[in-house]
Amino acid sequence: MPKPLTVMWFRQDLRLRDNPALLAACAAGSVLPVYILDDKHAGDWPMGAASRWWLQQSLIELDKSLKNKLWVLQGDPLELLPTLMQEQGATHINWNRCYEPWRIQRDKKLQASLTDSGFEVASYNGSLLWEPWTNLKGDQTPYKVFTPFYKNARANLPPPELPEPAPRSVPLASCEQAADKIDKLALTPEIQWYDGMAECWQPGENGAGDKLSQFLNNGIQSYKSGRDFPASQSVSRLSPHLHYGEISPRQVWHAAQAESGDTRLEGQIEHYHRELAWRDFSYSLLYHFPNLTKQNMNPRFDAFPWRQDDKLLKAWQCGATGYPLVDAGMRELWQTGYMHNRVRMVVGSFLVKNLMHHWQDGARWFWDCLVDADLPNNTCSWQWVAGCGADAAPYFRIFNPITQSSKFDPDGDYIKQFVPELAKLPAKYLHDPHSAPANVLDAAGVKLGETYPEPVVDLKQSREAALDAYQQIKVS
Ligand SMILES: Cc1cc2nc3c(=O)[nH]c(=O)nc-3n(C[C@H](O)[C@H](O)[C@H](O)COP(=O)(O)OP(=O)(O)OC[C@H]3O[C@@H](n4cnc5c(N)ncnc54)[C@H](O)[C@@H]3O)c2cc1C
Known about the structure:
Blueprint: E1 5-10, H1 20-28, E2 30-37, H2 49-65, E3 71-74, H3 77-88, E4 92-96, H4 101-116, E5 120-124, H5 146-156, H6 195-200, H7 205-218, H8 223-226, H9 239-243, H10 249-257, H11 266-288, H12 310-318, H13 324-336, H14 341-354, H15 359-369, H16 375-386, H17 401-408, H18 413-418, H19 427-430, H20 438-443, H21 459-473
Parallel strand pairs: 1-2, 1-4, 2-3, 4-5
Helix pairs in contact: 10-11, 11-16, 13-14, 15-16
Bound molecules: flavin-adenine dinucleotide.
Flavin-adenine dinucleotide (FAD) is lined by residues 227, 235-239, 242-243, 275-276, 278-279, 282, 341, 344-345, 348, 366, 370, 372-374, 377-378, 381-382, 385.
């Protein structure tokens, strides 16, 4: 019997290592690797600009590791895949599962229609530690609180499987496509605003491996205590690589676990594992509550009197609020496509509480600017910040950006990097330049309202207004 030709449909798993769908395809016969840019089914959430830039680089890397044989298409997979399979004589198709509601719906339809047409369809888990339907409460309902979700997974589910190596060789089908196939997707924006991202990221499987090694060499040792300090190198910065599946969470989990020979690292590793599991938790929430991208998890927030002030929203987006930590975070986002987690919480709280803007305004801006923009993580984190999500920060917990800044960026290194017009101010005043005496501002070359903005809102008044609004909806 001739060995079958399998289409390996790459989606959020742009890697060769620990890729179960690819391994199975290679074991069965020859492989036609395919990527499809599908903007049709994404609905309200087509990929943002920073994500598209990343994807372009990542596809180039994947194509290289597949000897330029990656088949790249754009359009509706429901139409494209059956035609491609027929034309190329493929009998099987493999993919690793995706969990965004729109992808689940699309894949179900596709699976049914391909199976009806006589093709063999196989799907695998290549993206999560524990899939959403495996980690349920005793009554078979989903967890809404992280700690029991995590405890149950650790106590009652098999530990994340050991990662598999890359296939020894990929038996590639001899199909040819034009060399400019990835450029034709037109993923790179016309205006070249992405230089800052290109400087700090190396998309692709090798880049992911390098980031992991850097973290294991220099970050994990101080992860627990250092992960809240945006200027420190204690976090892994693996989020965009995980989002595109250039590395699997199992690889990351077990690489961290392998450091446990050093007993001093045990607490750090456990903390890191917990954070990785937060990703699974978000995926589980969106899987079980697929309307979360547009609906508050806590319906009382439906009556919240959100404001719509375009001038304030613009000041927040541009990093011109007059609060240095908020501005540093928003500029880090714009320049690098990333923002440190602590600062994401601070800028998020500032937007939804001090400016009283809807959390979806923040989620949309992040979606367009983040290289790690990820529907489950972004949605659930914004609902968490706003206080309306599962296991959320209580609404009355309003981060004070000045206090947060003195606590987590005490020397102002992070602020100096992203708000350079304040760099000459003594650390003491960097967190709140408006409290600096005139002679200190003069000496540092800072003219408030000219070289650096006046605060767009008063912290105390805006906090009280937010708490009053919160009282109106009587959140229990
Ligand atoms: C308002 C807001 C929006 C966010 N949007 C996104 C998003 O679109 N995409 C995204 O990947 N993360 C998002 N996060 C979660 C978190 O900020 C990032 O995952 C983290 O900052 C990525 O940096 P890192 O890889 O260095 O994290 P590390 O601290 O090194 O953690 C390792 C990995 O664990 C996962 N992780 C860590 N913290 C969280 C968390 N709180 N929730 C879910 N997963 C977590 C990530 O996959 C991360 O890469 C958001 C957080 C907030 C507050």
